[in-house]
Amino acid sequence: MKHVIFGIALALLAIHGERAAAAEQSSPAESNVFGAPTPSISERGLTFTLRAPDAHSVQVAGGDGLGPGPFPMTKGADGTWSVTIPAAVPGFHYYWFVLDGVAVNDPSSETFFGYGKETSGVEVPESGADYYAITDVPHGDVREKRYFSKSTGGWRHAMVYTPPAYDKDLKARYPVLILQHGSGEDETGWTRQGKAQLILDNLIAAGKAKPMIVVMERGYAERVAAPPLKLGAGTPAVEVKAAFGKFEDLVVRDLIPTIDASYRTIPDREHRAMAGLSMGGMQTLFIALHHLDLFAYIGSLSGPIYPDLNSKQTLGSPQHSPFNTKTAYDGAFSNPSEFNSRVRLLWLGVGTAEPELFRTGIGAAVQSLKDAGVRVVYFESAGTAHEWQTWRRGLNDLVPRLFR
């Protein structure tokens, strides 16, 4: 009888051990360098490790999606520091280590241009979110386009997505979406962090979106040898306007003519759209609303609403007066019926977990526009903050509405 009880106990321990092992199972993030076991993802959360035997303290820090860090790491006997943090919101998140007070990248992670520099990043999968997955459908190409800009007096670098059939039917021509990144990022952001090319591939294959060319440029247009430009909280509105004006010149005088001359575009306003995230959304509203002769489709993903850049406001400050549809953006909405007849789509989006500056400003503008009779599409990404998952979801909603 004792042997039976002992056998049952062993069996129960084995089952418990199997369950515990299953619970502890983790997988390397797809954003790791080849063969790196961490960062790893499990039901418990994200695990980070760094071998630094001579360090005195190591922390892991990152963007909003990682939670309220930085998180202190614990040193093991072999000199490897580690920590497991609670599960992050699905999507892409920037992160870095703080080693004895110095921010360093993780040698186990690929780097992505964010925060104004190459930064580590971790991709946390979202169950069922296959719209940005690599699937067995025809795929387009992401090309690099270098061209000389008269506006800046130097060479520029743009990323260009061409749809799957672009090189097969050489007579076909395509509409164009100019798609801009946010502050601290560059022209690689939408394809590396945002997976825009996969979103387009899947939408086009499903017949939900028109095949189109997508152009992604660096959102800064200082002249060669000019000091680096930094736009952030506290920047006076007049400085923002001057910076956006330079980028406006680049888009209108250099980028659009170059793309039309280099690719098989349909070079008219009815087949040209502009959209962007955060700073790129601000730039889109600033440029496209002043050039309705060039753009019939306009989208702003989490773009802060600053309808008057002639004011004494600073970037990051809340709007103290209601959104005035008569004066906003130099009167672009002052005649709603005329605006509606010219603009095929005005799209504004935000994440429900974004800071109040974004949610309140964008939401109030949408309500004022609707009250005035301006057609506007409003999109909310549930549970996401000022991060790439918000913008992936936004792009997935925006693109099917273009060029219809």
Structure description:
It is a single chain. With 404 residues, the chain is an alpha+beta fold. The chain has two domains: 99 residues, Immunoglobulin-like (Sandwich), CATH 2.60.40; 272 residues, 3-Layer(aba) Sandwich (Rossmann fold), CATH 3.40.50.1820. The protein is 28% helix and 25% strand. The chain has nine helices and 19 strands. An eight-stranded mixed sheet has the order 12-13-15-14-16-17-18-19, sandwiched between helices. Strands 4, 5, 8, 9, 10 and 11 form a six-stranded antiparallel sheet that branches. Strands 1-2-3-7-6 form a five-stranded antiparallel sheet, with no helix packed on it. The N terminus is likely disordered.
Strand and helix map with partners:
Elements: H1 2-24, E1 27-28, E2 40-42, E3 45-51, E4 58-62, E5 71-72, E6 74-75, E7 80-85, E8 91-99, E9 102-104, E10 111-114, E11 117-124, E12 141-149, E13 154-162, E14 176-180, H2 189-192, H3 196-205, E15 213-216, H4 237-262, E16 272-277, H5 279-288, E17 297-301, H6 328-331, H7 336-342, E18 345-351, H8 356-372, E19 377-381, H9 388-398
Parallel strand pairs: 14-15, 14-16, 16-17, 17-18, 18-19
Antiparallel strand pairs: 1-2, 2-3, 3-7, 4-5, 4-8, 6-7, 8-9, 8-11, 10-11, 12-13, 13-15
